[in-house]
């Protein structure tokens, strides 16, 4: 379709320079101009950047990348893309730091085979990507471990209630993404609890006489 419209544009420009057109050529000329106007009109409406994601999608994407990253370089890049260098951090209502948060999340990757994320009740106070907003909700991180328990992979759960203030930074040192998006988390409150799921052992039951026979 794009190639056909391109030919209409080229041929329309050629025919537009002609002073004498046959009825058939004149019909083709008008059709070419029509398609040319559609193509050029649609291009003029396109933004040079893709639309920016809403706050909930942005927060889930950037926080989720921290827990899903396996390589150290990927994790470091995801961390820098998520947080402002001066981000305020509180964990379980105690003041913390970005370095402590980085070490805490990174240490949980040890001996992890896979990660599954589950989001619940995520809300946002704002809609405009260029205005600050607070995003809050619940995240459950389920990690499949490399070691086994009773011939099955062990699991570790982390339940997180979070509240993050997300806003666009004007600092020129903050690198924008492909959408010209300079949003970062400038304040993060976490309530986090690690849980080991219970191991369900098979319960023996007495064998009846009929079963023995």
Quote the beta fraction: 25-35%
Percent helix among the residues? 25-40%
Strand numbers in spatial order across the main sheet: 2-1-6-5-4-3
Q: Could you give a short account of the major beta sheet?
A: 6 strands, mixed
Radius of gyration: 29 Å
The low-confidence runs, each spanning 5 or more residues with pLDDT under 50, are 1-12, 14-21, 32-49
Count the helices. How many?
6
State the separation between the terminal residues, measured CA to CA: 76 Å
Instruction: Please identify the structural class as seen in this structure.
Output: alpha+beta
Summarize the structure.
With 213 residues, the chain is α+β, with helices and mostly antiparallel strands. Helices cover 36% and strands 34% of the residues.
Topology record:
Elements: H1 2-16, H2 23-45, H3 55-68, H4 72-82, E1 83-91, E2 94-96, H5 98-107, E3 112-124, E4 133-149, E5 152-168, E6 183-195, H6 209-212
Parallel strand pairs: 1-6
Antiparallel strand pairs: 1-2, 3-4, 4-5, 5-6
């Amino acid at each position: 379709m794009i190639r056909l419209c391109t030919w209409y544009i080229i041929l329309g420009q050629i025919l537009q320079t002609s002073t004498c057109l046959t009825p058939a050529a004149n019909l083709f000329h008008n059709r070419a101009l029509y398609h040319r106007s559609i193509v050029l009109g649609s291009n003029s409406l396109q933004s040079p950047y893709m639309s920016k994601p809403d706050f909930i999608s942005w927060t889930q994407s950037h926080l989720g990348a921290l827990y899903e990253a396996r390589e150290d370089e990927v994790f470091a890049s995801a961390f820098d893309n998520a947080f402002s260098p001066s981000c305020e951090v509180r964990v379980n209502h105690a003041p913390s730091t970005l370095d402590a948060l980085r070490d805490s999340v990174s240490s949980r990757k040890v001996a992890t085979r896979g990660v599954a994320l589950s989001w619940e009740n995520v809300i946002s106070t704002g809609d405009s990507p260029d205005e600050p907003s607070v995003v809050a909700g619940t995240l459950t991180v389920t990690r499949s471990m490399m070691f086994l328990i009773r011939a099955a992979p062990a699991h570790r759960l982390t339940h997180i209630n979070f509240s993050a203030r997300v806003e666009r930074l004007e600092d020129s040192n903050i690198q924008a993404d492909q959408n010209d998006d300079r949003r970062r988390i400038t304040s993060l409150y976490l309530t986090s609890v690690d849980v080991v799921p219970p191991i369900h052992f098979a319960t023996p039951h007495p064998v009846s006489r009929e079963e023995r026979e």
